[in-house]
Structure formats: C-alpha cells, structure tokens
Amino acid sequence: MQTRVSFPRIVSKFKSTAVALCILFIGSNAIKSTAQETWSLQRCLDHAFEYNLQIKLAGLGEVRAGIGTQSAIGAFLPNLNGNASHGYNFGRTIDPFTNQFVESSRIQSNSFGLSTGVTLFNGFQNHLNLKRAYLAEQSAEANREVVENNVVLTIAGAYLNILFQEEFVRVAEINRTATARQVTRMTQLVNAGAAAEADLYDVEAQLAADEATIVSTANALGLAKLNLVQLLQLPASETDSFQVVRPSDSDLERNNLPGSPETAVAHALSSFPEIRQANLNVEDASLGLRLANAGSLPRLFASYNYGSGYSGASRSIDGDPTIETISLGNFYWDGTLVPLTVEQESYNFITTPFSDQIKRNFNQSVFFSMSLPIFNNFSVKSAREQGQVNVLSATYQLEQTRQTLTANVESAWADARAASQNAVAQEAALTAAEKAFNNAEKRYEAGASTAVDYADARSLLDNARVNTLRAKYDLAFKSRILDFYMGRAMTFR
Predict the structure, then answer these.
(1) Residue 191 burial class via C-beta count within 10 angstroms: exposed 0-12, middle 13-18, buried 19 and up
(2) Is the pLDDT confidence value at 493 over 60?
C-alpha cells in the first residue's frame, strides 16, 4: 500500500541529522509484523490522525467556518419574532387601545404580536460576507492540511529516531560481542603465559566501555520510544513493549535525482496548502476592502408587524337598556305649575371579554426605512484605509510564502544531491575501515600490534558504520522529500 502525505516547508526546519531521518518509512507496511504486535508508520499516522489534539483543533476550525457560512446565508433571510406582554396599571392611566384616560385602582393589559424584517439593500454587504465565509471554509481546510503535515513530520521523525537508535544498539552489541571474544582469547593467552596481564586489562577495559555504550544506547532507545508513545497519546506503561516495524534494505534504495529543482518548485507553488491559504488570504483582504467601501452606501430595510391586545379598562354594554323617568321639578306654563320629567336610558357595562378584544384589536403595519451614512466619525474612512493596508499585507505575505517555499525546494534539491555524494563517500570509507579493522584484528591476534592499535582501528570502524548509516538514512529522507515536492507518492515500494 502506498501512502501519500503533504507537509509544509520541511527541509529548512529539519537540518540536523537526527531529525533528517523523519518521513523515511511512510511505506513501512512493506515489512510484515512479527508475532509480537508492532506499529508500522502508517498505523502510527492513522492513530495520530484520530486522536491528535492539534488535528482535532484544526477540524474545529473547519466546523467554525461552516457555522460562519450558515450565518452569512441567514443574513439574506427575513427574521421572525414573537412578543407577548402582561401587566397592570394603577391610578390614572391611558387605555392602550382607546387612548382615553382611565382612572382605576388596577387595570390589566396584555399584548401579543409577530414582527418580521428583511434587509433589502445594504451595499451588497451580505453578498460579500457570504463570499468571505466560503473563503474561510477553504482557508480552514488548508490550515488543517498544514497541521496534518506537521503531525506527519513529528510522528515520522519520532518513528525514524527509534529505528536509528535501534541501529546504534545493534552496533554496540556487535562491538561488545567482538570485544568479549578478545577477552576470552586474551585470558587463554595470559593463562598460558603467552601474553601479559596488561593486555588483558586493556581488552577488559574496552569490554566495560562497550557495556556502558550498550546501556547508554538502550537508554536513548527507551527515550525515543517514550517520545513516540507520548505523541501517540498512549500510556507511558506501554513504552517497554512498544515495537516498530523494521525496514528492509530495498526500502532504502536511492532514487534518481533530477538535474534541476525547477519541476519541484513549479509543483510546490501550485499545490502546497500554504500557497493556497496565502492566496485565499489575498482574496479575503480584497473582499474586506469592498466591505469597507460599502459602508458609505445607503441601507434599505422593510418590516411588518401583526398583533392584538387586551385591556381591563375596555367596557361593553350588557343586555338591553332600562328606561327611567326622572323628575326635573315643576315650572309654570301659561300661568300653571306643571311638573317636568324626562326619560333616561340606563346601560349595564361589563369588561369586554378577552376573546372579543383579541379579535377586535387586531392590527398590522408595514414600514420601510432607509439610512444614508453622511458622517460616522471617520469610521468608514478608517475602515477603507485599513482594508487597503490589509490587501497589501496579504499580497506581501503571499510573495514571502512563495519565496520561502521556492528556497526550501531549491535547498531540498541541493541537500539531496549532497546527500547522494556523501552516501557514496561514506560507503567507500566504510569499506576501507572494514579492511583496516580486519587487518588490525589479525595483527592483534597474532601479537603483532597492541590493544591500543586494535581499539583505534575499531573506533574508526564504529565511526564509519555510524556515518554510513546516517548517510544512508539521510539520503533516503532527502530524496523522498524532493519526490514529494515534485508531486510523487511518498513511498518506498
């Protein structure tokens, strides 16, 4: 299975030899696990992508951007709000429905209504905000890719560090075995009187030093495992049993390097998430400037209200009126005293029922309003000038990102070429060191050289082994990094 990953500006960040080994075994599932459960790099990455908090936070950024888009879409829609009130007025007050003064110890009132409003025009700000919301979604996606790439680098670096430390342990154990063989041989010679005890002390001191080296490299391996276990957010108790998949020799085969970095530069500038994010920032800044300019345009808003209410002061006639005869007294008519009476209708009033008032008091209204900015304390002017600065800043950042990425790709190409030449040189040095050591070992066993000569030859061999191993890993890493910049699958199969 091939795994393809992307990551930002990695070459300049990882110049040291130890970290330069990261990313080596993204295709490490080519090696089958042993009976004991082991972790391939792909398994480590899958686990990290599921549990890593940085990736989860970046994912929340996408969710947040999606919510922003939802709000931007909602700005085009009318709002709808309901309202209701219930209260009491005491003393002299105005009936809210008859607008007449009423005197009472307590009057109950209720009102109910629905209102809606919609923006008809606001200088196209809603349209611009929606475009910015879509850009924010794309930018959040690009940011998540950058975070994922950084996680890949971190996990792969820790994974490769374990493999590298295991190689150091293996070399240390080989040296201890060779020294132990010399101790056994020298003990036999001393017992036979064929060698001085001083020679035995020298090789025993070397054996003690080899034992100390094994302890040191084993501790470094344990720390490397702990680092990866912590990055994977596994319990620290699993460190001792944690094992990674070993690569095969074919995984370290060198790739043919291109004659120039132009192809890798072109692909990186057209596809890397940092470039995409920087371009989105330029677009967003341009939309921000347009929004600032829209602040000087008029705004038109429409609203509609529909409601009804109830008042405890509202009265209505209950039943038919009664007629009463009222005496106004007596008066003279043509010299005769005549009684004067009038008939008066009397009505019985009751509080108008709630349902009747609700039906009778229904009302509705439609309003259109417009606001025209004339002077806003220089806020529109300041926003416009700030928008212009933001556009220039985003443009400069885009160019800086392009330059940085171009420099990183060119450095990656130069590093890969240098690593290839160094690997050839270190292999030649290892071959020479092996021959020199074999000769020194034979001379030492034949008694033709001292323990110091033997130790010096083995020290040179150890250094050659380490340098060759480092060069091999370094070349594998840097050549694959260059492959990545060129758009090729990151694989060792």
Answers:
(1) exposed
(2) no
- Residue 390 domain-assigned (yes or no): yes
**How many Cβ atoms sit within 10 Å of the Cβ of residue 181?**
14
| One domain for residues 324 and 300 | no
Please check whether residue 204 is in contact with residue 187, taking contact to mean a CB–CB distance below 8 angstroms. no
Residues of the domain holding 431: 11-82+124-304+383-485
Range name among 166-180, 230-244, 276-290 with the lowest pLDDT average: 166-180
CA distance 393 to 254: 42
What percentage of the chain exceeds 90 in pLDDT?
37
Cα 359 to Cα 194: distance, rounded to the nearest angstrom = 126
| 334 lies in the same domain as 220 | no
The reply to whether 430 and 455 lie within a common domain is yes
**Which residue carries 């036979």 as its tokens?**
192
Separation between Cα atoms, residue 133 and residue 142, nearest integer Å: 14
CA neighbor of 441 nearest in space, from 186, 227, 222 = 186
pLDDT, tens digit, 9 for 90 and up, residues 39-51: 988 889 899 999 9
Quote the pLDDT of residue 17.
31
Dihedral of CA atoms 311, 313, 316, 318 in degrees, nearest 10, equals 120
User: Using the 8-state DSSP alphabet, how is residue 10 labeled?
Assistant: -
Domain count within the chain: 2
- Catalogue the E-assigned strands of 334-426: 336-346, 349-351, 363-371
Structure tokens at 78: 């009318």
pLDDT at 160 over 60: yes
**Cβ burial, residue 235 (10 Å; 0-12/13-18/19+):** exposed
120-148: pLDDT as tens digits: 999 899 999 999 999 999 999 999 998 98
In a domain, 366, yes or no: no
Residue 214 pLDDT exceeds 60: yes
Residue 129 lies in a domain: yes
Q: Give the single-character DSSP code of 353.
A: P
Q: What is the DSSP string of 77-121?
A: SPEEEEEEEEEEEEEEEE-TTT--EEEEEEEEEEEEEEEEEEEEE
Domain identity same for 389 and 336: no
Question: Domain with 424 in it: what CATH number?
Answer: 1.20.1600.10
77 and 56 in a common domain: yes
Give the integer Cα–Cα distance in Å for 15 and 418. Answer: 13
Query: By the 8 A CB rule, do 81 and 142 touch?
Result: no
> pTM for the full model?
0.73
Residue 342 and residue 236 share a domain: no
Which tens digit of pLDDT belongs to each residue from 373-391?
888 889 889 999 999 999 9
pLDDT at 98: 64
Mean pLDDT of the chain: 82
Report yes or no on 342 lying in a domain.
Answer: yes
Q: Are residues 450 and 330 in the same domain?
A: no
How many angstroms separate the CA atoms of 309 and 109, rounded?
7
